[in-house]
Amino acid sequence: MASTEDPMDTSLDTLSPSISLRTHDESPPLTPIPNHADTSLSTHYGTSPPPSPEWSLVSHQHGQQIQSQFDQLSHHQTSATTDNLVEDAADLGAILLSLAIIEQILSPQKQIYSMIKESKDQPLPMFILDKLYQLRSKLHLPDQYLKGETKNLKRYVNELYDVCRKRSEVLVVNVRIETKDPLGPLFAMLARLKFRRPDIGPIDYHCVKKSEFAIILGFFLGSMGCYTDPNYIRTEADMVTIGAAVACGKLEAFIHSL
């Protein structure tokens, strides 16, 4: 018989040993930006969701629709409502996650679904290269030929992060997996995330792609002023663990406890 406990009701004590925040150079964690700080990038929203109305205002009817869909999935879970993401990104998932973070930091009003749609218009490696060129241009980095090998893509996206952290405070999120799936079903996490950010757009809970989840999670982390090094996120479980901490609000609470 399935447990009646909220699968996302995970205490901070169970998360804090697995999730840590650090700066890129291993110095002590940075403190939140003062409200009066003169920064050129909007990366930190405090305890509230991003201020855009389409993100933060959820109508009662929309909330009921999401809750109804969540309840149906909870009571009728089948093999189709898998706890695994559909693999479509291979070793590019972590790179896409980091790119989505930078995209949200530089374009805080951009909707999640718009980047998901963009990613489907061309092969993922081509999309990543195009996005790297776009973000480099936005940050006024020198024009250069970008190679498509994974190790180079990781280096390119970390270069973007290095520029961003010089302009505004960005914390680095590290995660270590200690137990297998301790944080509940994937669909429960997604339902919670979508309630918080309706700009995710339509989600097929039965077939969530890794690339879609990477973009969704990246936008959430970017809105909180957090970054993940693509060299550190090695598995789907790493990504899902951070996603669960974001969905239940524990990561945000952890950041503000520093």
From TrEMBL:
Superkingdom to which the source organism belongs: Eukaryota
Name under which the protein is recorded: Uncharacterized protein
Polar residues: compositionally biased ranges: 11-21, 37-46
Organism expressing this protein natively: Fusarium acutatum
Region span, Disordered: 1-61
